[in-house]
Specification:
Layout (H helix, E strand, L loop, with lengths): L1 H10 L1 H21 L26 H11 L3 E4 L5 E6 L4 H15 L4 E6 L6 H9 L5 H9 L12 H17 L6 E5 L5 E5 L2
Parallel strand pairs: 2-3
Antiparallel strand pairs: 1-3, 2-4, 4-5
Length: 198
């Protein structure tokens, strides 16, 4: 909980410094992108691309968008609809709750979501995240899994998919992302937006 993190950081100077550095990086990102609220509109998916032209110095928000677009994941929803990029941990209750809000707009053809699965190395979460990368029907498989059917992502995944999830975890570490879900999209104003948590 937040209280436990506060207590732990009060007793551990190294943890306190790490959290402070992460907080500053997040503030830089927010200043350059405009932090979104959960109700901010999702823009046209066509704008979820890098600016044209070579040698362009990208803002932190554009770099974050690029990293999320390049990460290993599964896109669900109708082609051409607004795209939301969502970092998910298969065991995260907040990810499951957020999915509950996104499922109907996806099913109705109003939204596309790229689910970018993560899990700590060697954990069951990592295995489930890697298995998700190869499911034949991602939308229904993820929905069933989130609804409690653990058999959907059971078993040992191929090594290549574990490597892909570890690459996603490396991206998480680079950006010092501390919680899931972590959502990135481009707003109607053209700016990259971030939603942390449900």
């Amino acid at each position: 909980s937040a209280q436990q993190v506060n207590n732990a950081s009060a007793e551990n100077a190294q943890l306190k410094a790490l959290l402070a550095a992460s907080s500053e990086q997040q503030k830089d990102l927010e200043r350059s992108t405009g932090m979104a609220s959960a109700r901010d509109p999702v823009s046209d998916a066509k704008r979820n691309t890098l600016p044209a032209g070579g040698g362009v110095s990208l803002t932190p928000g554009e770099r974050l968008m690029n990293d999320f677009l390049s990460a290993a994941g599964v896109v669900v929803g109708q082609e051409g609809k607004p795209l939301t990029l969502m970092l998910v941990d298969p065991q995260c209750q907040f990810c499951k709750a957020t999915w509950g809000e996104l499922y109907e707009p996806i099913k109705k053809g109003q939204l596309r979501v790229k689910l970018i699965p993560i899990g700590a190395e060697g954990s069951e979460n990592e295995k489930q995240a890697a298995k998700f990368l190869r499911v034949s029907d991602p939308l229904n498989s993820w929905n069933k899994f989130v609804s409690g059917d653990k058999t959907i992502l059971a078993g040992d995944p191929p090594a290549a998919d574990l490597t892909a999830v570890r690459s996603n975890m490396s991206m998480v570490a680079t950006w010092k992302i501390q919680a899931t879900p972590y959502i990135v999209y481009r707003g109607a104003d053209g700016k990259v937006k971030v939603v942390q948590g449900k």
